[in-house]
Design a protein that fits this description.
The complex is a heterodimer. By secondary structure, chain A is an alpha/beta fold. Chain A is built from 12 helices and 15 strands. Chain A starts with a strand and ends in a 5-residue tail after the last strand. Chain B has one domain (2-181): Pyruvate-ferredoxin oxidoreductase, PFOR, domain III (Pyruvate-ferredoxin Oxidoreductase, domain 3), CATH 3.40.920. The chains are: A alpha/beta, B alpha/beta.
Chain lengths: 384, 185
C-alpha cells in the first residue's frame, strides 16, 4: 500500500510493522513527531506496546536497556543533545549485547543552538559499539527500521537508524508500506538468547576483572565484523520479500569514473541528479553512497573506489582538529591500497545549510580542476 | 518538474496546503514532495512551505530557490516578505488579496503573471475562520493546472472529515472567483 509519509512517520510505521514491545523516548526537535506517532499508536491500541514516559534521554535508553534485558523487542528515538545525553547508556546497551533499535534524527549540536541537519551528533558516537545505518529517503527509513531488528537480533549489537533532520524527518513523500503479515513472516517474534527471568535467574554485567574484560571487547568486535555479513544477508532477504534492497554501500556509475563523489544521507539523493547532468556534459563522475558507517564496509569501499583517480567526500560533519569524519574513514581505508586515488574532503552543509545541486557541481568541478586539495579540509558553501 | 513555494503565517496551514497538493499529485500517479521551511514553528510568524511535482522520481533534497509558482496565503505578508524572490520570469504569483491583479501589480511592481482572489472573505463565509489554506488551493489550480481539480477532493475529505464539505466549497469558490492578469497584460 502506498502512503504519503514524512520520514518521522516512516520510522513510526517501521516500528509498528516490527511489533516493538516496549518503547521509551523523550521528545526533542526534530524527532518529536516520531514519539507523538508512536504514543498515539500505543494509546489507540494499534501497536500493542508498553510506552514508557521518562524525564530524559538518559532515562529513555536506561529503561529500554532494562526492557531489552528481560527479552522485549524495544525502540527509542532521539536527536542531537538527546543523543549526547544518552552517551553513557549507549556504551551500556552495546556492552550488554542488547538488540535495541534506535532512530536518530541528525541535528546539529550546541552551542550555539541549532535544530537543523548535521551528522556530528551520531558520528561522534561512533566508538560506542552501535551499528549505524544512514538513510537517503523515507522509503529507505521504513525499510531500514525493519531490517535493523533482524540484524540486531542476530548479532546482539544495537542498531542506530539515522535520518536527516527536516530533509527527511519533515518531508512528505510517497512510501510503499509492506503488508503487516509479510513483515511478520520476514521478522519473526524475538526470542532472547539470554534474559533476566525470575524463574531462571541469571545476572548481567557484574564486575569483570582484567583477566576477562579484553575478551568481552574482542567478542563485540567479532560480532561487528559478523554484522557486515548478516546485514548483507538480511538486505538480500528483504529484497526477495519486498523488492527493495540497499546494500552497505551503493556504487553508481563508478566503473569508468575518474572522479567518485562519496556521500551519505540526503546529499546522496540530490547528488544523483547532479551527477546525471554532469555525465551529459561528458564529466566522468560516479557516486558512492555509504549507508553503513559502523561496522565500516572497508572491503566494499576499496573495491568501489579502485580505478578512480580522485575521490571527493562530502562531509556534513566535522571532527575538530582532524577533518570530515567520512573523509577520514575513506583515507584510512585506502592507505594500504597500491594505487591510491587523491582524496578531497569537503566539509559543508553544517547546521542545516543547504547542499544544493549547484554546490555539488562546484565540489565536483573543484576536484576535476585541481591536482590536490588545498588542505586536509576544503570548506565548501561558505558565506561570501 | 513544477516547484511551488507557499507563504503563510504559522497556523494558517501553509504546510497542510503543500501536503494536500502533493497528495493530489501522487493520487494521479505523479511523484511529489512537500516540506515546511525548516525551523521552529511559531504561530503567526511568516512561514514558508514547498511542494515539488514531477512525472519522474524526485531526487533533489534542497529548498526551492527559483519557484515556478509562488502562493501567498495571507495578504499582510505581501508587504513583509519579498514573496517574488527567485520567482521565474515566466512564473506565476498567486495571492490572497481583496485587490485586483492590476492593483497588486502596480503596488508590488511584479512583472510576472498574477492571480488574485479574496480568500480571507471566502474562508470567513464558508468556514467561519480566516484560515485560507484550502481556499487558496482553489486559486492555485485555477492559475496553473498542476493537478485535476477533482484530485484534491479525496485528500480534502481524508484530512478534514466532517469539515471537508465546507473546505471543498471554499476551494471551489476560490477556483471560480480567481482573477488572472497575464504577463504583460
Amino acid at each position: 500500500m502506498k502512503k504519503v509519509l514524512t520520514g518521522n512517520q516512516a520510522v513510526a510505521h517501521g516500528v509498528l510493522l516490527s511489533r516493538a514491545e516496549v518503547i521509551s523516548a523523550y521528545p526533542i526537535t526534530p524527532q518529536t513527531t516520531i514519539v507523538e506517532n508512536l504514543a498515539e499508536l500505543c494509546a489507540d491500541g494499534i501497536l500493542e506496546a508498553k510506552f514508557l514516559r521518562v524525564e530524559s534521554e538518559h532515562s529513555a535508553l536506561a529503561s529500554i536497556i532494562g526492557a531489552s534485558m528481560v527479552g522485549a523487542r524495544t525502540f527509542t528515538a532521539t536527536s542531537s543533545q538527546g543523543l549526547a545525553l544518552m552517551h553513557e547508556m549507549l556504551h551500556w546497551a552495546a556492552g550488554s549485547r542488547l538488540p535495541i533499535v534506535m532512530a536518530n534524527v541528525n541535528r546539529a549540536l550546541g552551542a550555539p543552538w541549532n535544530i537543523w541537519n548535521d551528522q556530528t551528533d551520531s558520528l561522534s558516537q561512533r566508538d560506542t559499539g552501535w551499528i549505524q545505518l544512514y538513510c537517503e529517503n523515507n522509503q529507505e527509513v521504513l525499510d531500514t527500521v525493519i531490517q535493523a531488528y533482524m540484524i540486531a537480533e542476530e548479532v546482539y549489537i544495537p542498531v542506530m537508524v539515522v535520518l536527516d533532520a527536516f530533509f527527511l524527518s519533515h518531508t512528505s513523500e510517497p512510501v510503499e508500506i509492506p503488508e503487516g503479515g509479510e513483515v511478520d513472516k520476514f521478522l519473526p517474534k524475538y526470542h532472547a538468547r539470554y534474559k533476566c527471568d525470575v524463574n531462571d535467574p541469571h545476572s548481567f554485567n557484574l564486575m569483570v576483572s582484567p583477566e576477562y574484560y579484553q575478551e568481552f571487547r574482542y567478542k563485540i568486535q567479532y560480532a561487528m565484523e559478523e554484522a557486515k555479513k548478516v546485514a548483507k544477508r538480511v538486505d538480500d532477504l528483504f529484497a526477495k520479500s519486498f523488492g527493495r534492497g540497499y546494500g552497505p554501500i551503493e556504487g553508481h556509475l563508478c566503473d569508468d569514473a575518474e572522479v567518485i563523489l562519496v556521500t551519505t544521507g540526503t546529499v546522496t539523493s540530490t547528488s544523483r541528479g547532479t551527477i546525471a547532468r554532469m555525465r551529459e556534459r561528458g564529466v566522468k563522475v560516479g557516486l558512492l553512497k555509504i549507508k553503513m558507517f559502523r561496522p565500516f564496509p572497508r572491503e566494499e569501499v576499496k573495491e568501489a573506489l579502485r580505478g578512480a583517480q580522485k575521490v571527493a567526500v562530502i562531509d556534513r560533519n566535522i571532527s575538530f582538529g582532524c577533518g570530515g569524519i567520512f573523509g577520514h574513514e575513506i583515507k584510512a581505508t585506502l592507505c594500504d591500497e597500491e594505487k591510491r586515488p587523491q582524496v578531497f574532503d569537503f566539509v559543508t552543509g553544517l547546521g542545516g545549510r543547504d547542499v544544493t545541486p549547484s554546490l555539488i557541481t562546484e565540489i565536483i568541478e573543484y576536484t576535476c580542476q585541481n591536482e590536490r586539495p588545498e588542505g586536509e579540509i576544503i570548506w565548501a558553501g561558505m558565506r561570501g | 518538474m513544477a516547484e511551488i513555494r507557499f507563504h503563510g503565517r504559522g497556523g494558517q496551514g501553509a504546510v497542510t496546503s503543500a501536503e494536500l497538493l502533493a497528495l493530489a499529485a501522487i493520487n494521479e500517479g505523479k511523484y511529489a514532495q512537500a516540506f515546511p521551511s525548516f525551523g521552529p514553528e511559531r504561530r503567526g510568524a511568516p512561514v514558508v512551505a514547498f511542494c515539488r511535482i514531477s512525472d519522474e522520481k524526485i531526487k533533489i533534497r534542497a529548498a526551492i530557490y527559483q519557484p515556478d509558482i509562488v502562493l501567498v496565503l495571507d495578504p499582510s505578508i505581501l508587504r513583509l516578505v519579498d514573496v517574488g524572490n527567485g520567482l521565474k520570469g515566466d512564473g506565476t504569483l498567486v495571492t490572497n488579496t481583496r485587490f485586483s491583479p492590476e492593483e497588486i501589480k502596480d503596488e508590488l511592481g511584479i512583472q510576472t503573471r498574477l492571480a488574485t482572489v479574496d480568500a480571507t472573505k471566502i474562508a470567513r463565509e464558508e468556514l467561519g475562520l480566516p484560515i485560507t489554506n484550502t481556499t487558496m488551493l482553489g486559486a492555485l489550480l485555477r492559475a496553473a493546472h498542476l493537478v485535476d481539480k477533482e484530485s484534491v477532493i479525496e485528500p480534502l475529505k481524508d484530512r478534514f472529515g466532517r469539515l471537508a464539505e465546507r473546505n471543498i466549497k471554499a476551494f471551489e469558490r476560490a477556483y471560480n472567483e480567481t482573477r488572472i492578469l497575464e504577463q504583460g497584460g
